[in-house]
Specification:
The chain is an alpha+beta fold. It has helices at about 15-25, 30-45, 50-60, 65-75, 95-100, 100-110, 155-175, and strands at about 85-90, 125-130, 145, 150. It folds into two domains: about 15-75, Arc Repressor Mutant, subunit A; about 85-175, Glutaredoxin (3-Layer(aba) Sandwich), CATH 3.40.30.10. The site of FE2/S2 (inorganic) cluster has 12 residues, from helix 5.
């Protein structure tokens, strides 16, 4: 897979910051060291990978060095430090989105696009994760968050197809005309 620019990618760190403040409050340095793995798991669960901005936030919040965070990220094979797909779609499947029809979007994804175990299309164009919590934008339900910052409201199967076409077109303009499986 081609290497991608990731350091400048815009990431919404608010959800991770909230989790860290609520659940990761070490009493001392030893405990802070022990909490790094769990905090990285939270980040990966949220973003599908551990972006550098998230690693930095974890280091600052726990008061450990960034080397300690990356030491663990590279030690455990389950952690991903590169964005799995060129685009990342976080599809909300919380109660309001479910009632508004998010299941139809999930079904369209499963039947129309072949996703690997990590939710990434075989050409690396798109990674999709279904989020069972609430993305905090219920008035837009069903809603998805694109590339960690842009909210797409009233998402349905047609809008999903349009999105994929936009990604394909952008990729073609970029000189790569592979298609999405
Ligand atoms: S349940 Fe989907 S944004 Fe709240």
């Amino acid at each position: 897979m081609e290497e991608r620019e990731t350091a400048g990618q815009e990431i919404d760190l608010q959800p991770l910051r909230r989790i860290l403040e609520e659940r990761y409050r070490p009493r001392d340095h030893q405990e802070a060291q022990e909490l790094v793995v769990g905090a990285c798991q939270e980040a990966q669960h949220l973003y599908g990978w551990v972006p550098p901005q998230a690693a930095q936030l974890i280091a600052e919040h726990l008061g450990v060095t960034i080397n300690r965070v990356y030491g663990l990220l590279t030690f455990y094979a389950d952690f991903r430090t590169e964005s799995p797909g060129e685009h990342f779609l976080w599809l909300c499947h919380g109660a309001a989105c479910y009632i508004a029809g998010s299941q139809k979007v999930v079904d369209a994804l499963r039947t129309e696009y072949r996703l690997g175990e990590d939710g990434t299309t075989s050409d690396g164009l798109l990674t999709v994760q279904v989020f069972d919590g609430c993305l905090g934008a219920c008035d837009l339900a069903p809603v998805a968050q694109l590339d960690h910052h842009e909210y797409i409201g009233q998402l349905d199967a047609n809008r999903l197809r349009e999105l994929v076409e936009e990604f394909r077109a952008r990729r073609r303009v970029g000189g790569n005309d592979e298609t999405l499986d």
